[in-house]
Design a protein that fits this description.
This protein is mainly alpha-helical. Helix content is 72%, strand content 4%. It contains seven helices and two strands, in the order H-E-E-H-H-H-H-H-H. It has a two-stranded antiparallel ribbon with strand order 1-2. It is globular, with a radius of gyration of 19 Å. 30% of the residues are buried.
Length: 211
Amino acid sequence: MKLDKTQTTIILAGVYIFLQMTADIAATKVIVIGKIVMDAGIIYALTFTWRDLIHKQLGKKAAQTIIILAGVINILMALYFVFVVKLPPEPEWAAAGGQQAWSFIFGIVPRIVVASIIAELISELIDTEVYQWWVNGPGKKRPQWLRVIVSNSFSIPIDSIIFPIVAFYGILSMDVLFIMFLSNILVKAVMTLASFWMIYLVPEKKIYAEN
């Protein structure tokens, strides 16, 4: 199926925002798999590679814009959840535990979103700069998949240390937070290795010329 410029832009931006929002909500749950302890927003790891697709096809400015837009949308989502939590619940639904569950899960969403936005803005804007440096410099004639590996190797550790501390400090012990930091790096590295091929989903030639 051949896509035009508008369709390509909508798909690239839409998938990125979907990954961000889904990860923020899922991150309210902390999971344990063997010795790995981390939030359940595992899908967030794909945003680094998907950001590279956006950068490759739409350019640096578009990548920066979508990163900031996703942050704004997530803030609005969190504020709306706060509003919904405060709305009066239907008595039978509340008696069944609905209000308590909503308050616990979506009451922590704003903190998760704040943590995500701080980590996202810092790590993914750094990812953008590293990607641009690599493409214009040492990686100019190297395979495209190396762009993903190089840029993610900078952004993943930064994101992995910021998010757990901001999101769960005071809720989880420092020992658990350290395990989460290591677990996040491991899982995101594995996700990068599993998804680096996605950089070839879009052609090298940009559909829009950058100013």
